[in-house]
acetate--CoA ligase
Amino acid sequence: MKIKSLSVSKGDFNLQDYNQMYGSFDWTEVEKEFSWFETGKVNVAYEAIDRHADSFRKNKVALYYQDASRNEKYTFKEMKERSNQVANVLKEIGVEKGDRVFIFMPRSPELYFAALGTIKVGAIVGPLFEAFMQAAVKDRLEDSGAKVLITTPDLLQRVPFEELPRLQHIFLVGENIQEEGIYLDFNRRIQQAGKKFDIEWVDRQDGLILHYTSGSTGKPKGVLHVHNAMLQHYQTAKWVLDLKEDDIYWCTADPGWVTGTSYGIFGPWLMGASNVIIGGRFSPESWYQAIEDYGVTVWYSAPTAFRMLMSAGDELIKRYDLSTLRHMASVGEPLNPEVVHWGIKVFNNRIHDTWWMTETGAQLICNYPCMEIKPGSMGKPLPGIVAAIVDNNGDVLPPYRMGNLAIRKGWPSMMSEIWNNHEKYESCFLKDEWYVSGDSAYMDEDGYFWFQGRVDDVIMTSGERVGPFEVESKLVEHTAVAEAGVIGKPDPVRGEIIKAFIALREGYTASDELIEEIRQFVKKGLAAHAAPREIEFRDKLPKTRSGKIMRRVLKAWELNLPVGDLSTMED
Ligand code: 6R9
């Protein structure tokens, strides 16, 4: 089927407008859509929830929630009240503007009330994946100096609070909670709290959310976003997700990942859309069922999920009514042309690739409904955004030259700081002009960008960003492991899988049991998605003279490629 012949919606944002605004859109135009344009004082939770609750949207469903045991819905008015109750409870225990409140729990309505309530008191939300194990949880709470944690009794054993002196309160979300010491009963306190709250108005550059993400070296870094990011969350929800009044929108991402907050909380609710949240684990049947049950019209997911749906077969799709789907988009990894063609075949719809990252806070390079898409390309920059390919000095390269994908500094949702690490923050910019993404890409003569790979060693597995260093550090904690080097190995479904090369300590011998034991060790100590799927033992690992494991040599071994320059390698 030809892409051009599709009858799907082309969106309200037309090509002529795009071309006119390309590279020069004035963001103050977006400010005018918000009440704070004149006062300068903002709160994104007000704009996302209360503004609608006080309008004709008051009884419109804001949140549809479903998992194996719950099926609930909440209107904007109810969302306003619940988040006010959380805000009152937080204020009562002394949470103030700028404090860090972390949320470590599976998706549930309470998670969303908690995030919005935190924002209403002016505090900074820190969402954590429920899959994190003790070491991962500790690193993040420690680095951020979190004052409050909201979690569940099941996850509590992974919170080493005796080692976290700055953590003052832990809310437990569940039944029959005994309050003692630092433990507080979330549900009971919320029920007893007032439904009215005076929002803490903050400055647009004040902290909103802290997402920890992995780089190629060191511990995970805390990427801070501020309230001003709402300009771009709002505008991209309009232009890229094409959200309209009657849409039923489903973003499949967990709030532990930036996609699950920028486009699972802020974007859709700033637009006043009905937002579907599905808890629990992925299964092709339950996903298609969710689209049918809610009549989802706009769907935002990730390449790994689309590839898993694709491999579940097209027969399955025929059992569901998916005819409501109007617009589909993807983020997280390269979207293979194959998947785009599959989408056209089975949904009669194009999957629109979007590119952005934790640090950029919102979508930057996208395929828009109004535009011809080139399968395999990430698309074109958002109006008001200047993207370029630059060399290592920050000089712009011509079309078709591969180099660093860079964005001209200063877009509304740009990270405002790396927590406790200003030096690292500064190192992300070249010539004080370009934010350098760490991705390599090229631009074609039509201005479309084409992803080529990561410049660093960061691994993308099933759309999750895993720092090899974090996995290596965990591996060497195992008594049998002397040295470990971790790489991403290309995989047709997951994008990449994690492969570890390990040199054993004296006295240990390689065996399948040992492989399994080491995998479990990482799984329990760090996170299931961080455990190497493959482990290979070697007598010695390639290292530089300064002792750094040379991952590119491991990669060359794995892929049977030439190892390249070995001048920095130790003997
Ligand atoms: C939102 C998010 C960022 C990294 C990014 C790049 C990869 C994201 C992509 C893509 C190819 C796309 N990435 N979107 N690669 N095509 N459309 O994913 O944030 O978890 O920080 O990851 O993901 O390598 O640098 P984050």
About this structure: Confidence is low (pLDDT under 50) at residues 1-9. The first helix runs from residue 15 to 21. The chain has 18 helices and 29 strands. The longest strand covers residues 481-491.
